[in-house]
Amino acid sequence: SFHSLGIETVLDLLLHYPRRYIDRTNEAERLSQVDRARRALRDVPIRDELQTHVDLARTLLASLASDDLVTAIHLIGAEEQEPVARAEGARPNTMPTDAVHRDDSFCGHVVARDAPLEIEDTLNSSEFRYHPHVLGGAGVRAYVGVPLRVQGQSVGTLCAWADHPISLDDRHRASLHQIARLISLRLSNTV
Asked: Could you give phi then psi for residue 59, rounded to 5 degrees?
């Protein structure tokens, strides 16, 4: 919680975690593909199919993170990270389930980089240790996100997070990437 931080840490947070990492290059074409994916997701069978992929990813990664692991698919719009599907364990998770500002989301960084992002322990990450979801109520300690691409544009993520450090092995990493490719292919064939 922010109340337990010292004044130097709070000043460091204010100075070093501005919304500075989000690159909006090629945004018009990317947002066009996000809108197309949104329209495709109005189809209930497609949403159900994507939920099955999220459930599969959670089952795959559960051996690493016990019951606190959450997996999800998010679309990243112009300003918000929008939830599409989510799978949780038995323990409640405090990460917001509604849309959050894109710049405050881990997934926004994945889309901006158009590359996977894996953080074994957010508290040991110079880039993310002051992230609002690390220091705030969500208490995210580990995150992994893989971009979902439609027509060559990164439109969202398949991601997972937990409240303790997680280290993926090559087999889990490759499987997560393969599930993300399946989701991307499904979205691309729908739009």
From this structure: -60, -45
Rounded mean pLDDT for each run of 10 residues along the chain, 191 residues in total: 58 51 73 93 91 94 76 93 87 60 84 93 87 78 94 95 89 94 92 63
Could you give phi then psi for residue 155, rounded to 5 degrees? -110, -15
Tell me the DSSP string of 26-90. THHHHHHHHHHHHHHTTSHHHHHHHHHHHHHHHHHHHHHHGGG-EEEEEEE-SSEEEEEEEEE-S
Residues 158 and 175: beta-carbon distance below 8 Å: no
CB burial class (10 A; 0-12, 13-18, 19+) of residue 108?
buried
Q: Quick check: helix, strand or coil at residue 170?
A: helix
pTM over 0.85: no
**Strands 117-119 and 153-162: what pairing?**
unpaired
Beta partners for 87?
71
Round to whole Å and give the CA distance between 62 and 13.
32
